[in-house]
């Protein structure tokens, strides 16, 4: 009996660790869970380099930003009502077919700015120490 209880506790601990470190498992178990609160906290504290995963609605499409790389740019509104810019590097990932009012999910890196912040690094990060991101539209994930 003690072995069975220890095995159950061990399984529970592994499950909790999986929830903490695996966004995929977290979404499978808690599909409506997102980091909107974490973004608000990062904005309040002027924090950057925060990995986030959120559900959002596209509220504005901006012209591409051509700098040293090319970025698809748009603004999203989070469930909290906060708006955040998204810069998606289309030199490293495919353009995402978004339009105003599109519901999306995305994972990327949040950086603070006075206008609400920016989510970028929404692409695969194979040759980087950073964790890669993605944008999901209509069930299709763009890396």
TrEMBL record:
InterPro entries: DUF3465 (IPR021856). This is DUF3465 domain-containing protein. It comes from the Bacteria. It holds the Pfam family DUF3465.
């Amino acid at each position: 009996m003690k072995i069975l209880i220890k095995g159950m506790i061990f399984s529970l601990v592994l499950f909790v660790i999986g929830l903490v470190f695996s966004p995929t498992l977290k979404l499978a178990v808690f599909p409506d869970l997102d980091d909107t609160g974490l973004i608000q906290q990062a904005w309040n504290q002027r924090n950057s380099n925060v990995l986030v995963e959120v559900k959002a609605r596209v509220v504005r499409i901006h012209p591409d930003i051509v700098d040293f790389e090319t970025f698809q740019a748009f603004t999203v509104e989070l469930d909290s009502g906060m708006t955040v810019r998204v810069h998606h590097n289309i030199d490293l990932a495919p353009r995402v077919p978004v339009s105003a009012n599109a519901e999306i999910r995305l994972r990327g890196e949040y950086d603070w700015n006075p206008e609400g912040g920016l989510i970028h690094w929404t692409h695969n990060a194979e040759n980087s120490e950073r964790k890669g991101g993605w944008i999901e539209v209509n069930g299709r994930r763009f890396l």
